[in-house]
Amino acid sequence: MAIALLLLSSLTNRAHANSILSKNISVHVTQMRLGTVLKTIEEKGNFYFSYNSNIVKTDSLVTVNADNWTIKEVLDHMLSYRFEYHEAKNFVILRYAPLQLNIVTDKAATQGDSYIISGTVTDDETGKKLLNASVYSHEELQSVLTDKDGRFELNLHNQGRPVTITISKEFYKDTTITFLADVQVTSTDTTIKKKSLLGYILSDDYSGVEKTALGKLFLSTKQQVEAANLRGLIAQAPFQASAIPGVSTHGDFGGQVVNVVSLNAVGGYNAGVDGFEMGLIFNLDKGDVGAVQIAGIFNVVGGSVNGLQLGGLYNNVLGNVSGIQLSLLHNSVKQDMNGIQLSGLYNHTRGSVRGLQIGAIGNIAGKNSDALQLAALGNVASKKFSGVQAAGLFNYAKHLTGVQIGLVNIADTSSGFSIGLLNIINSGYHKLVISTNETQNLNLAFKNGNNKLYTIWQGGMRFDDNSKLYSFGLGFGREFGLGRKLAINTELGSSYLYQGTWLKTNQLSKFDLDLTFKVAKMFSISAGPSLNFLYSDQRSRVDGYAYVRDLHHSFIEGNRNWTGWIGWSVGINLF
Fold first, then answer.
1. Looking at residue 126, what is its pLDDT?
2. Pseudo-torsion of CA 131, 137, 142, 148, nearest 10°?
3. pTM of the prediction?
């Protein structure tokens, strides 16, 4: 027995020696933001913090004068002993736990092939018996919840070695007990590293899946309590099979286990998957999913997905996706998407998109993105967009540096290209042009886009009572700056000419080359030559209307349908 206790003491001292929290640092700050001080400690200790930003108030001001204190001592001082700390790889997780619980065991005995532990869990300060505290085994991945009297009984497999159990409850510090034969050793120091399969999900949102509508619908109250108690604490196992959440090879502890393979008859609830998962109807995973995940109806993942995710109707990922998402209805990613999203209705990524989004109705990218968005209806990019948006109806980008192709293209600002019937750049190129040319006395044109590419809606008329003429059409243009005052505008347009009948085709295509002089901020003058080509199958003049073939000398000879001439235009530009 003495040897066993000595071995435990040796392992404990070694764990402390290697602990991040036991490192000594010096920190001297006065009324500095907590977030800044945490960054300083990270740099000094060469590690990272993970915490819930809704609970750790990083804007609060703290004062610390620490000479050669341990990191744990510094944290206790700043956080007023209201948090506990867990280490995982190169991270320290801050868990809000201002209260202390107490456990009294009344049974810890071997019965055949079982080792049974029972007892009562209470609040250490008030003595109140605690309902729904989680009592679990590190080694065997089993857990139970205390009843209304704080009672529990945990039935473990008797492996003839020390048994360790941990008691966790939301807002309480974890308490760990180790049983060595007939000697009981109690420890509340959670920095001691024990050999087990346990690890931690490094996430700001410890119960994201449980908060979703589908999580609330398919998870029991007991499972949601376990998730709140155990937070990001997880274990690893090679395989699990389940009928429904809670009825699985891992029992009530299933939501805390990352599996290499997970097979779910109806649906499963895991901490994550690092291999392959298939659910006939659904899969719910608290943490990350790697490789392949397939569900008949839906997948909901609280962490990130790296690989292929296939949902019959719906995929929802609260972290990042690096790979391929496929569904018949909808794909949703809360953070960033790097890969391919393909859905029968629409895709929505709240973060940035790098890759391809294809949705029959539409696609949404929430942050700066460089992607190809393809949709029958519309695409939306809420921040800077550097890729290509192609839609049957409309595209919107807050700041466009790429290309838009659609009937209607909208951007707040643009240094890219918008190609469509109507291009609206809110802070871009806006001109109302009043002009005259060799064919029509008055022309009006509205130009909108940016100086790289703008759309022209135009119309004109000839006033002569005996030679009337009307036109309307669409064009595109680009402005080349020649300094502060001068610019050259190149424009290509096509207009229909009404010469007294709608039964004939009279289509005028023209190329304008104008020199523009900017008189003031919202007023300029332009003039220049034009090259005109008219296709017309109208063979005679209608009384009162002009017959354009007779107005100009054509440089095209011997063709009944085509006429070409050199023209001119002079106009003023407003706005």
1. 92
2. -10
3. 0.68
